[in-house]
Amino acid sequence: MKVLVLGGYGLIGEAVLGRLIEDGHDLVGLGRDVREAQRRKPGAEWIAADMSRLLAAADWAPLLAGVEAVVNAAGALQDGPRDHLDAIHRRSVAALVTACEQVGVHRLVQVSAIGADLDSDNAFFRTKAEGDRAVASSSLEWTILRPGLVIAPGAYGGTALLRALAAFPWFVPAVLADRPIQTVSVADVAEAVSRAVGGRLAHGQIIDLVEERARPLGAVLLEFRAWLGLPKAPVVAVPAIVGRLAGSIADGLGLLGWRSPLRSAAIAALEKGVTGNSEPWAEINGRPAQALEATLAAMPAHVQERWFARLWLLKPIVFAVLSVFWIFSGIVGLVRQDAAADILISRGLPATLAFVMVLAGSIADIVVGAAVVVRPLARSALMAMIAITLLYLAAATALAPNLWLDPLGAIVKAVPMLCLVLVALAILEER
């Protein structure tokens, strides 16, 4: 069949899309930015579209031409500049359902979430449940799958955070370490979708996809630490208030375009635990969903996994240090403008030009220091930092080469700072 997968390059969507290609279906993937997806999955057709803007059946109709089944694996954790939960989870899904009924797409698989509840005070779970209701009240051959904590070879968001915390030196920090968690392999999710799309699963079901046994979050982290091949370390319970504070900070970063998994919605969800009923899927599948130990064993960790886990925690520190360094440097230049200009004047530059250069340099430092913490501007800011630093070094070499031998290393220290910018560029990508 021709199958449309919404969110086809996400953690779940990519695995689903790959499995359906193996099953022999013709795949169409949909997402906001599909350039990288086209490289990773060239066997699928890709459509660049934002679900939060597809809010009427007429918006969906052209995208459903020739499609026989739809898998909705799209979603967002919390409202932000790019993400609007009500639009993505409820309004767009309702419009999709109507469009499917109108154009004759009969089969729809909705990948929801454990904990979806119409009465939830958590916007993520409430809007997910509202989307599920739109699907379940339709005339389509529908299936709703609710996976627990999904574990996959790729990692971003919550699964990246698990790896990072597990790689923490000396001990493993955990907020709400005692909360029960049931994981599920992304392969099991893809298997369930495959069965639903292929008609090998009775439609009209809501199925939890979770391993049999729930375990505390702290135990999940220790499994990840062992998987990474790191020495044993104790789990240290972090007070819940620290998690809430981190969530508030992450919410603020969300307004700047960063999609941290530590946002307050995730902390609130974790407080309730991530658990479901494993028995229905075990009966359908003939065996329970794969346990965490087997999931991890199926994707052995190598050195790149340890690099990723350690660098993931360092990433916010790297960007914070760069931002503070450049902003502070610019402020010092403004406060001590006369002293900075005197250095240039002593090297033969006209006073007016010297003051203009100091002022321009100080403003440039402050601008790039502020821009680097705004996600859409971060790459441009880092490139500007490289250009400005090279310009500083070239000017210092031309005007005052003796500064390279300054006992306090004022010029020499720009070189490791430049290296830190290169590191920031290397780890900037999130997906």
From TrEMBL:
- Gene3D superfamilies membership: NAD(P)-binding Rossmann-like Domain (3.40.50.720)
InterPro entries xref list: ComplexI_NDUFA9_subunit, DoxX-like, NAD(P)-bd_dom, NAD(P)-bd_dom_sf
Keyword Transmembrane helix (UniProt): yes
Q: Which residues cross the membrane?
A: 312-332, 352-374, 381-404, 410-428
Q: Which GO terms describe its molecular function?
A: protein-containing complex binding
Query: What keywords appear on the UniProt entry?
Result: Membrane, Transmembrane, Transmembrane helix, Ubiquinone
What range(s) does the NAD(P)-binding domain occupy? 7-154
PANTHER family with a match to the protein in the record: NADH DEHYDROGENASE [UBIQUINONE] 1 ALPHA SUBCOMPLEX SUBUNIT 9, MITOCHONDRIAL, NADH-UBIQUINONE OXIDOREDUCTASE 39 KDA SUBUNIT-RELATED
Protein name, as recorded = NADH-ubiquinone oxidoreductase
